[in-house]
Amino acid sequence: MQKIFVASRAGFCFGVKNAVDTAVKCAGQENCYLLGDIIHNKSVVDRLAACGLKKIDSVSELRPLAAGERGKVIIRSHGADRKTYEDIAALGYEIVDATCPFVVKIHEIVKEHYESGFHIVIIGEAKHPEVVATSGWCDNTATIISDEKDLIGLEKYEKLCFVCQTTFDGKKFEELSKKIHKIKAKTVEIFDTICYTTYERQAEAVRLAEKCDVVLIVGDRSSSNTNKLFDLCSAVNGNTYFVSSRSDLEKIIISRSDVVGIVAGASAPTESIMEVKTYMSQEFGKASNEEFLEAVNNGPVAIREGKTMTGTVISADAAGIRVNIGGKIDGFIDKTEACDEGEYKPEDFPKGAEVVAIVTKKRDDALGCVMLSKKRADAMRKSDEEVDQIRNGETFEIVIKKDIKGGLTGSLGTYRVFVPASQIRLKFVPDLKKFVGKTLRLRALDIDDINRKIVASQRVILLEEKEERDKKAEIFWENVKPDVVVAGEVKRVCPYGAFVSVDGIDCLAHIDHLSYSHIESPDEVLEIGKTYEFLVLKTDREKQRVSLGYRELQPHPFDKCMENHPVGSIVSGKVISVLPYGAFVEIEPGVEGLVHVSEAAAAYVKDINEVLHAGDEVTVKIMAYDEAHRKTTLSIRACLEEEKPAAKAKPAKKVVEESDVYSEKPDNNVFAELLKKTDDAANDKKD
Predict the structure, then answer these.
(1) What pLDDT is attached to residue 2?
(2) CB neighbours of 357 closer than 8 A, spacing ≥ 6?
């Protein structure tokens, strides 16, 4: 009976799957183009073309978009150089980046080190599109090597940075690394940028080739990683064949007794693998399938540790549950392994009830039973339910338990979660240890149910959030201009102002623009967490700064002051500041007036500081308002003059009437008689 083994790592890796899924979503859209082949697989490329996705080989084939016209260009999984991104954007197209995350990581390393003065060396195939794209991130100055002899001459560089093509032969890279360490340069940095799935895929392929009679390598002959799998397997197994179509299978002579291993490259679609499996079943599998079914139905149940089994309860007591699992010996669930939650109660497991449990020990000699754990099976079921919820791209969280080479690990139920270093942040993370113990928000890129492994990414979430923020920011900067009123939530305050979120953009309302009156802290006016309306005062898109005003939208206290205290009113106020030419007095919150030095006292004042000091309470008279400039003129002297007591009035002079002076009645004037006698004596003398 022929046996067929399929490598668990056969087919699309998560990077390729993401690229193909992205291309499928865009297929058929107007002005949507794919730059180059999305992956090295003709059947996939042809399928996308049939869906209406137009392929171009160069940016020069694109026409500039007209105003208001929209278009997209998909960057394939191998990535592109920096100039390509710039040229596409300059033509007005939206870039849909399907570059493999591991390739993106290499681009970041190359860019950072090139800008720091390193000479870049790329280990890989010079003509491979991934290598060509990577070289473009150091202005195409990189040295491309693939063999030990290519290292000659690199000693002339003081600083060297080595990166590796993601699909390069892992064993060959290790050998080259030993030679690189011997290069006499001041600084040599080597980055193992081979995709971790490449390592696992290659190692598994070799193991399969060693134990199988025939090995079938499924994939396209133009695929670099598929060719490497063929080279590795054929080195240990002479019966290794390249299968890119059904016609290739028909040429291979395979015996019914052969053990056949099926390995597939990262760019091989599922349908290609299924086509090979179907062919093998049709040609060799009928009799084998019948024999297999007969063995399952009539033979003993296969027992292995970790296997999930379904059985029926024979009995339950204080010690545990005895279960019929369909074999010659029964299973037994110890009371400590019966319940995932709550207390174990024998009555909860009546005879004949069905239970699902996991084999923990093939046979316990003392009990003569297969030892089972229902608790572990329940935990696994819950874990499966959790994993089912994230299969469609839902976000989940885990606490990172460990940092390992190439990434971080944690767990989701009974699944081991691996987060590649390139998928932690938007930029390359050199120190992984700082993430241990931290909670990451993740999205599953690949779920391996057989080995209960999940490859996840936080970067895809951060990228989506960044894109969303960028879209909001674009709308924000297009609409937020000076003198526009906006609504914003107060996020935090500091001594010099309040930080306000307007459509997710942080803006600053300076303390000077919060109140017309003097305040010590912004929280005297604004409350954290509340939303208020603000006036945009100034914007600087280049520096990403926006200044807001709150008081500018509030009624000005000057207008209220004019109503409450017309010109001529006497009011009390507080001296705010004293200057050589006068003192400013606050007569209402936010309203100050000037008392000129000439109006500071009743008498002449040479130095105003002799009569007024900051903080003094004074009484002033409002002399005038300048409404246009919101200025108030005040006087202390005017108040002092009004307070002086009125001067004592002099008695009025008596008005003497002629009749009073010359009255003929002697009793009316005591001098009348004397005057008369004087007149008579004068007359006698004349005579």
Answers:
(1) 55
(2) 308, 309, 311, 323, 331, 333, 337, 372, 373, 374, 376, 377
